[in-house]
């Protein structure tokens, strides 16, 4: 569970990062998209990078990867 690994500030930053990355995106409410972004944010935080900017960057990288995987070849 997330709360076991992170302090309150980090959990808040993670949620804010997820919301920032997903808001105003056409696919921002899709479960698969949000999960991919969240997983990358979690990996970033587990690596000790817990600042809001670092977490948003990690989420943005996941967004780019997810979209590239979904595009037809």
Structure notes:
This protein has helices at residues 2-5, 8-22, 31-46, 52-70. It is built from four helices and no strands. It has one domain (2-70). It has 73 residues and is mostly helical. Helix 2 (8-22) packs across helix 4 and helix 3 crosses helix 4.
Protein topology:
Layout: H1 2-5, H2 8-22, H3 31-46, H4 52-70
Helix pairs in contact: 2-3, 2-4, 3-4
> What ranges have pLDDT less than 50 throughout 5 or more consecutive residues?
none
Strand content: under 5%
The figure for the number of domains is 1
Helix content: over 70%
C-alpha Rg (nearest Å): 12 Å
First and last CA, distance? 37 Å
Per DSSP, the total helix count is 4
Main sheet properties? none
- Give the total of beta strands: 0
What sequence of helices (H) and strands (E) makes up the elements? HHHH
> Structural class of the secondary elements?
mainly alpha
Overall pLDDT score: 88
Instruction: Write down the overall geometry.
Output: elongated
Notable features of this structure?
73 residues, mainly alpha, 4 helices, 74% helix
In short:
The protein is mostly helical and 73 residues long. It has one domain (2-70). It has helices at residues 2-5, 8-22, 31-46, 52-70.
């Amino acid at each position: 569970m997330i709360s076991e690994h992170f302090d309150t500030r980090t959990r808040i930053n993670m949620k804010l990062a997820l919301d920032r990355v997903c808001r105003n995106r056409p696919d921002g409410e899709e479960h698969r998209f949000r999960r991919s972004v969240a997983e990358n944010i979690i990996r970033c935080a587990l690596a000790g990078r817990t600042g809001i900017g670092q977490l948003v960057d990690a989420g943005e990288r996941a967004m780019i990867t997810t979209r590239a995987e979904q595009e037809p070849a």
